[in-house]
């Protein structure tokens, strides 16, 4: 079994080299059904996983050889997740405004419908029950798109038993080991399980599972709940897939950040925003 895993991992490097050719072959498929069948199967295949791992290894090796590449890669990946998270943060404002409108319309005016018709042009009109359910989507968007950004900012709750009391380099080794043993594997496993759930919800096809090796795509389905509430079931399942993808990217960026920290002589904070705190003199009180 270990030999098969090692062989598959090595084949990931071969598949990575052949990736442009594979993409060209995919474009040469004659029908949309054949193309979609290929995507359905590849998304949670062992070959795809090995290609992702091979790409990570290649980038790490290049970063070890060229320090500037390592620094640039960390900055670009964290900037990517940062911009997505900052954009997603606006949904908190949208959620708040919509919640206020629902309360005012339902409790003050005793209405059951919220219409948006500037200058007499009816653009949208939805029942309050449907709009209330839509608030769950905004929450899901915030979690899926902003969790990686929150990680960059050091905003997640952490239980510290020994971390704060150890030396700087020991902390970096702990972060490195935690990323390799927990963050990246858990994110990859989440992608593995979320892929068939999202695909089955978005498309009409032969139902997929995590071990599927064939697919029979038919058409777009967009699964809904069939109730009066907000019914985009497919959107919630797709957001789980988005969350897994962004956390994989951030996990890899965090891995590179700690490799960079172990290579340099100056101390580099685990979370970039904490550099501002470290720059404040010890006798200064910081108010948040």
Question: Could you describe the largest sheet, including whether it forms a barrel?
Answer: 2 strands, antiparallel
Mean model confidence by pLDDT: 88
Coarse shape: globular
What is the element string, with H for helices and E for strands? HHHHHHEEHHEEHH
Taking pLDDT < 50 over at least 5 consecutive residues as the criterion, the unreliable ranges are 275-288
**How many strands appear in the DSSP assignment?**
4
Helix content: 55-70%
* Domain module tally: 2
Helix/strand-derived category reads: mainly alpha
Number of helices: 10
Distance linking N and C termini? 53 Å
Adjacency order of strands in the biggest sheet: 1-2
Percent of residues in beta strands: 5-15%
Q: What integer value in Å does the Rg equal?
A: 23 Å
């Amino acid at each position: 079994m270990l030999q098969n895993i090692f062989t598959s991992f090595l084949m990931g490097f071969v598949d990575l080299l052949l990736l442009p050719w594979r993409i060209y072959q995919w474009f040469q498929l004659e029908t949309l059904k054949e193309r979609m069948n290929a995507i359905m199967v590849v998304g949670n295949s062992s070959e795809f996983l090995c290609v992702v791992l091979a790409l990570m290894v290649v980038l790490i090796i290049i970063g070890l050889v060229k320090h500037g590449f390592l620094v640039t890669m960390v900055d670009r990946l964290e900037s990517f997740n940062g911009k997505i998270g900052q954009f997603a943060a606006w949904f908190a404002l949208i959620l708040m405004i919509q919640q206020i409108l629902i309360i005012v319309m339902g409790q003050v005016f005793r209405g059951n419908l919220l219409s948006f018709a500037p200058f007499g042009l009816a653009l949208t009109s939805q029942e309050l029950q449907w709009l209330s359910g839509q608030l769950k989507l905004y929450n899901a968007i915030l979690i899926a798109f902003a969790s990686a950004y929150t990680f960059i900012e050091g905003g997640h709750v952490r239980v510290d038993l020994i971390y704060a009391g150890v030396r700087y380099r020991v902390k970096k080794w702990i972060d490195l080991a935690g990323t390799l043993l927990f963050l990246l594997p858990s994110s990859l496993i989440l992608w593995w399980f979320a892929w068939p759930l999202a695909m089955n919800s978005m498309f009409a096809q032969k139902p997929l599972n995590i071990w599927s090796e064939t697919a029979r795509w038919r058409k777009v389905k967009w699964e809904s709940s069939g109730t009066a509430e907000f019914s985009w079931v497919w959107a919630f399942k797709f957001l789980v897939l988005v969350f897994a993808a962004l956390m994989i990217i951030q996990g890899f960026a965090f891995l590179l950040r700690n490799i960079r920290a172990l290579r340099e002589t100056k101390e580099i904070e685990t979370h970039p925003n904490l550099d501002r705190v470290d720059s404040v003199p010890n006798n200064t009180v910081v108010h948040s």
